Amino acid sequence: MNTTYQGQRKQNALITGASSGIGYELAKLFAHDGYNLVLVARNEQKLNQIANEWKQKYCIAVKVIAKDLSMSTSPEEIFAQLQQEAIKVDVLVNNAGFASYGLFHETNVTDELQMMQVNVVCLTHLTKLFLKDMVKQGSGKILNVASTAAFQPGPLMAVYYATKAYVLSFSEAIANELEGTGVTVTALCPGPTESGFQQRAAMEDSKLVSGQKIMDAETVAKIGYRALLEGKTVVIPGLKNKLLAESVRFTPRKIVTKLVRTMQESKS
Question: 160, 161, 166, 225: which one is catalytic?
Fold first, then answer.
């Protein structure tokens, strides 16, 4: 679906993984505040349903781009399409991501390579492509969705935890580089969140989430959205998550890793 952007230019926000979970809730917050949207996900039908609803409800323009971000060509294709249509991205939200669960020597390498492509490579590539224009115009915001997994190794989800450590480190580094440019970078580091994430990772029976009271996607999105607008570099939703993230700094790494392994193990 193509939408023409006319009249006085509103701010445009591009959100990946916008069809569900935290990405959907973030996109709704931008829509509520009058941003035009570029929604990116694999499910074109779901994106079109969202676009049609929000165009009428919020009086905004919504562009849908159906892409599989595990494909290495996707970032360039997204960027080229928006360049061709003269749609400037003022806010980039790198939310898309997924995980796999199990012992590394038993898990599917294809899934993990795709995970690295989405969680790390695509995020980095999209940031590279859109950041240059933000710096040139002297304004812009980037929100990279990391995780509390970024703060320690994660047995049984080794690759996922490593990808989120990259996202946090990368975000903090370029946030420092961009000081004084008018562009800010925020890393959102939620703990376990009610969404389709656990089902896709096949970890519903993990002690980390099974039977636990975890934060909902709407609450996480609101905290991340507020931090983005305030230009914060790192935000960890929830006091318990903050305490856990901070505590690993003062605990021997071997003990931290064993504790994470215990939390990740299946209850059955």
Answer: 160
